[in-house]
Amino acid sequence: MASHSQSLQHSDRRPPPHFFFLLLLPCLLISLPNPVLSRCLHTPVIFSFGDSNSDTGGLAAGLGFPVNFPNGRTFFRRSTGRLSDGRLIIDLLLMVQPYVGQSLGANFLSPYLDSVKSNFSNGANFAIVGSSTLPKYVPFALNIQVMQFLHFKASLLDPTAAGPRHLINDEGFQNALYMFDIGQNDLADSFSKNLSYVEVVKRIPSILAEIKHAIQAIFGFGYQFSFTAVDALTLPHPRVMHDQGGRKFWIHNTGPLGCLPQKLTLGPKKPGNLDPHGCLSAYNDAARLFNEGLRHLCQEMRSELKDSTIVYVDIFSIKYDLIANSTKYGFSSPLMACCGYGGPPYNYDIRVPCGQPGHQVCDEGSRFASWDGIHYTEDANTIVASQILSMDYSAPRVPFDFFCSK
Hints:
This protein is 34% helix and 8% strand. By secondary structure, it is α/β, with parallel strands linked by helices. The protein is globular and about 60 Å long.
């Protein structure tokens, strides 16, 4: 680890952990999908909704919240507002990368709230750090993000409005991919309030209901331009108004919450609370129940929303595999943050977060799965993105570029 520019030296002459990863790299690459060119027949347009797992700078742009270096050090060489040392999963899915197949080669998604550098020709990112589904109408809850999208869409399609109206047309909105990665903060916040496991689980149906309402609003249930955005998300018996609605949805389930160094530091670690890999069992069990409910919701909505494609992606299994089989991926301490404070076993201290004075950060080039105790490193994100693109964790099993290849 290093405190700002200072590094701790190895106490012996053993090779560093990433040495063994380099030995395993040829075997690992065989298991990853072969790089292929995207089959897109038109400009890929993507709209993203969610939390810090997908936020490409919205918090910094919208609230001026400082996301300091060393965030962004690996790829961007500067902080971009992403809570990682480099690119997020959504970035990697959009780029052609050396061991990642079927990526689109599109521009990074611009944060919707960034008024200076944004390019919305290939979509927009509404995901914001800290977002959850509940409570509603609180910045930046999921229903607020969807209301922002509906406003954005109405503005671009308004023939009387000034400004760039032709960035995305009717067909572009209908053929776009709508990505969701949300729910982690709902579960985490519930546990942080010292609710029991049973009380946390009781909240899951309400969380899923908000995700369902969001998808319905984008599809066009109960929404036409004479309605307000609030109407679109609160009509109890919505009518179908979907001539221009979204049809293609990509839904990530939530990851293994109980394996995050932050939760392991702050959560209850009594005998029997940890699973064989050192993760908090109750947190992961709640995540699994949420994910099972989300999977059923996607199945239900495929029948309800005619002509739609709703892809459910099992992020939990991909990320848990990084922990359970960490040595296969070159991660010697999968439950320890690269950037934080306190040293082993978790290097996390809520009083000294990454990027703030006093933080300790691992040497650049060392292999860590966790970046700051909550979010993943680019190394880990690259593996996750590659597994997503393999289609092995998707239901139905369709390539990521399905939305722009017809």
